[in-house]
Amino acid sequence: MAAVQETIDHVKSIDVDQYKYGFVTDIESELAPKGLNEDIIRFISAKKDEPEWMLNWRLDAFQRWKTMEEPEWARVNYPKIDFEDLHYYAAPKTQEGPKSLDEVDPELLETYKKLGIPLSEQEVLAGIAPENRVAVDAVFDSVSVATTFKEELAKAGVIFCPISEAIREHPELVQKYLGSVVPVSDNFYATLNSAVFSDGSFVYIPEGVRCPMELSTYFRINERNTGQFERTLIIAEKGSYVSYLEGCTAPQRDENQLHAAVVELVAHEDAEIKYSTVQNWFPGDSEGKGGIYNFVTKRGDCRGANSKIAWTQVETGSAITWKYPSCILRGDNSVGEFYSIAISNGHQQVDSGTKMIHLGKNTSSRIISKGISAGVSQNTYRGQVSAHRKAKNARNFTQCDSLLIGDKCGAHTVPYIESKNATAVFEHEATTSKISDDQMFYCQARGLNEEEAVALIVNGFVRDVIQQLPMEFAVEAQKLINISLEGSVG
Amino acid sequence: MLEIKNLHAEVEGNQILRGIDLTVKPGEVHAIMGPNGSGKSTLSYILAGKEDYEITEGSITYNGVDMLELSADERAVAGMFLAFQYPIEIPGVATMTFLKTALNAQRAARGEEELSTPDFMKLVREKSKDLKVTPEMLRRPLNVGFSGGEKKRAEILQMALLEPTLCILDETDSGLDIDALRIVSEGVNQLRSPERSMIVITHYQRLLDHIVPDVVHVLSKGKIVKTGGKELALELEANGYADYVGEEA
User: Fold this and answer.
1) Contacts of A454 (CB under 8 A, 6+ apart)
2) What is the sign, positive or negative, of the torsion defined by CA atoms of B210, B216, B219, B223?
3) Does A447 contact B158 at a Cβ distance shorter than 8 Å?
């Protein structure tokens, strides 16, 4: 017991205070006044040079939002958010949107360098072999700063740009798809996002095109008291394929920062979308002060037959996580997958999972969720699997494993299973385990210290999910897991 | 050189070791035999640094260093290795990954450079051949679903790779058939050298036909009650432990 007790003490004392990405970049930024009203929405819309229809869409969302209540069913506790005490828009101050990297504030580029994102194309080209290249759309507070590799993508017919640009340049696509997966009034946070979203990424893959590189967005919240409301929309036309990576960091602040994003994916016939997230928002300090409130709505629509959407997430940060990346399996034979690693430590609270809504015939879904709780954190898996009347032969396999480190944390599994078609087969497996003293002793007897032993055992526990991540992300995710649990923060 | 002096230990108030004295010089192989419950496995766990036991009296030094001051991983770095009677499963961690992590952890702790992947692979291939550890086995999660023989071969493979200077083999023969026993014993014998000491803990003489000890001790009720040469093991096989257990009583 003593060995594990020490591990617990150690993990408890991990350096959440030394959050690796907790630096603040001193850049002049342009802030909207605090609070939320129609004027603020008009301000945001005007800043973005948006057409009339977009403004009306936002105002409509705002009217709906005013009538809605904050949801309270999740297993998370936090003081009431004062939505009037937030800035709903923050942008680095430049006269116009940057036209090339030369126009981007060098301090901003320095920030990205610290985050380890090879933003400039030269660096990327020099550092990474062609087939491993990643195109990055970086969102700093609310504005998309630079999109790399745009030209090469354009050659393939792929559109990858800030959503604010897509609203101006490709209004027909945005109007057709925006809100078609996550309706304006879907839920409190999604509706808020619809009213005030400031930027995000837009991806369009034309018919039959296999996107020639991984697409990536890095989000970072820098400005004090800002809410970050990105809006991401990805459309994969018939027979196309795209793999999208999203990474998130935030500087360390005492106040809580709100993050309420919406991500919509549309996969047409025979198309495939892979969406991977590595999230390490500031989790709050060792006393539970500060940290990001992460209330995110992510949903994919397998609209066409034989389409496939796979979500993979590694969640290590945020004070509060409220997130259920879901798949609507509308097309016949469509496939939805959800692979998740959620690590909570310190005072973090995670309520996350997925929804697999089977509507079409022969649809199948697979859920692999690995939750790791340490410190005094609470980690809940909440998942819904449902088969509608016409979902003949729907199949689901769910596996939820929880690993506890110490005796002050909690792991909870809340599955909702609903079948209205007798031919549907749903399987659910769940396990909860602790790192045993015997495992620790065995590893230590081979020369691994406590930290190394915990890291090795945890990495073994999450292996099924790590294998689903694209190579570059898998390495980063593994490092992050070690950082979150080992206290070896640089 | 390992020196155990007047070692007393208890777990949850139960006295298990009642004054063990044992000196093992470099190059020597000592066998410790004894009936069930005599404290053999406890001794091996205490040597390796398991923390469930309270040392109430006595000392353990290895090469002049007080082992009781060191944690289990520090003892491993100091050259100690325990081959477990019941090796522990590590789900999701490929045997190969485990071997590499352990070897590099020890090297790092000694201030040595980590072994590159090609060098490491070469080393593992070389060491695993004689122990009949297949590449397929190296890909499987450590000890998960391993047969009794596979587990013991994996233990000896770890020992061969980590090159400890003091090997403690806790009932390595348990659960092995004749062929597996031969493979494992040959693996152990290959590691015998003038610099390396071994403590072989066993119930049965048969292991000592393969790994021939220099010294044999009989452990009973937490004390060494008889010490002799390899012929002592044969005597025990013929007459049982009754004589020694009786002597104590």
Assistant:
1) A7, A11, A405, A435, A440, A485, A486
2) negative
3) no
Chain B neighbors of A460, CB-CB under 8 A: 90-93, 141
Cβ pair A247, A281 in contact under 8 A: no
Question: With contacts defined as CB-CB under 8 Å, which chain A residues touch B97?
Answer: 456
Amino acid letter, A332:
D
- Ranges of chain A with pLDDT below 70: 1-30, 91-149, 218-227, 248-256, 286-288, 472, 483, 486-490
Residues B187-219: tens digit of each pLDDT: 999 999 999 999 999 988 889 999 999 999 999
What is the tens place of the pLDDT at every residue in A306-363?
999 999 988 887 788 888 999 999 999 999 999 998 888 888 888 889 999 999 999 9
| Pairwise CA distance, residues A432 & A23, whole Å | 36
ipTM for the assembly: 0.95
Q: How far is B187 from chain A (nearest CA, A)?
A: 18
pLDDT in tens, B53-72: 999 999 999 999 999 999 99
Cβ–Cβ of A1/B51 closer than 8 Å? yes
Nearest to B73 among A436, A444, A462 (CB): A444
Chain A positions touching B73 (Cβ under 8 A) are 444-450, 453
Residues found in chain B: 249
Each as own residue / partner, the long-range contacts of residues A72-78 (CB below 8 Å, 24 or more positions apart, any chain) are: A74/A322, A74/A351, A74/A380, A74/A382, A75/A349, A75/A351, A75/A378, A75/A380, A75/A382, A75/A412, A75/A414, A76/A320, A76/A322, A76/A349, A76/A350, A76/A351, A76/A378, A77/A349, A78/A256, A78/A293, A78/A319, A78/A320, A78/A349
At position A34, the amino acid (one-letter code) is K
Tell whether A437 is within 8 A of chain B (Cβ). yes
* Cα separation, A221 vs A230, whole angstroms: 11
A71 touches chain B (CB under 8 A): no
Angle at CA of residue B57, ends B56 and B63, nearest 5°? 120
SS3 A57: helix
Chain A CB contacts of B54 below 8 Å: none
